[in-house]
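Sample entry (380 residues):
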Amino acid sequence: MTRTITGEQQAFVDAIRDFVRRECGSRERRLELTDGGARTHSDALYRKMAGLGWLGVGLPEELGGAGGGMVDACLFLEETAYGMAPIGGHGPSRITAGVYQRFGSEAQREAVLKRYCDGAVLSISMSEPGAGSDVGALTCRAERTADGWRINGQKTWCSNAHFADSILLIARTASGGDKHEGLTMFHVPAGVPGLAIHGIETMGGSEVNDLFFTDVELPADAVVGQVDHAWRQLMGGLNTERLILAAMMLGTARRAFDDTLGYVRQREQFGRPIGSFQALAHRIADLATELECCELLVYSVAAKVDGDPARLLPREASMVKLKVTETAKRVALEGMQMMGGYGYATEYDMERHVRATVVSTIYGGTSEIQREIIAKTYGL
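Predicted structure, serialized as tokens:
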């Protein structure tokens, strides 16, 4: 790939690649770390990365981070995804940590961000059975009490809640007027009485959950940011969230491409490598071109964020999420097609690449929603 980075950043990339090769470079090792693939996250491996200071990359040192910016964070996300490191808890954790960084109280930032940098997994809970893309339709209710807040309602599709240290909950605290007003964020510690977590089995394994809140009591200082203004606060973090998802999928897409390329170079039919046939060679050429475009877009947007962290980039953030996730899905599906039956077999990694990428155009805002946002920035 052709990204332009500093010598220090290249040394960082080299260190990640070496670590991933040593710790989880083989399929057998990855299966060992994840109970045969049943889990998406290895706590032991994740905490080794935390010990190296890598989880805090892109977060300010005064908040327990390792410094650097979004370019550095994207390098880590891309390279660990390329290496298929089983740290499924990291993406949602990094997104959630960013919310605490921007809107948490001093006590919340100190406690939550330090735990995150030390290897704790964080989760964020927004979706409900009747509220997915339409976030303003949230009904999970938080009511004031004499000592704080009482939560009742159901959430769904909550990533990693079953092993998270805490959950950042978005609940309704007021009704009437604009449906996006009256939403508030709450810090919910793991194991709080009244919270039931039920796993949802998916193509990707045990990743997401239904959450049931029944008279969950939270103290007054559980509020993250301003009461009734969670929507505006969350919109301010879209640059980071969508870049994180795009950087991870860039790494996965690169891995799927390289796996495909390696296969078509060595697999022979009709007396020669199948990659030498024009039908496949042109597919490879198109995918390689698309990946170059994705890389340029990811690091261009990351550089803009680093240049002005407070600047909102709704068009660019939606473009990078849309382009990279759709390309990653295409690369994986094309790879499976070119590998034939072997691409479908669990003996190879391609079927896992497919499972990882097809959902990426859904979570974090569907491709359809991203197109709507981009169109609106052009006054449509």
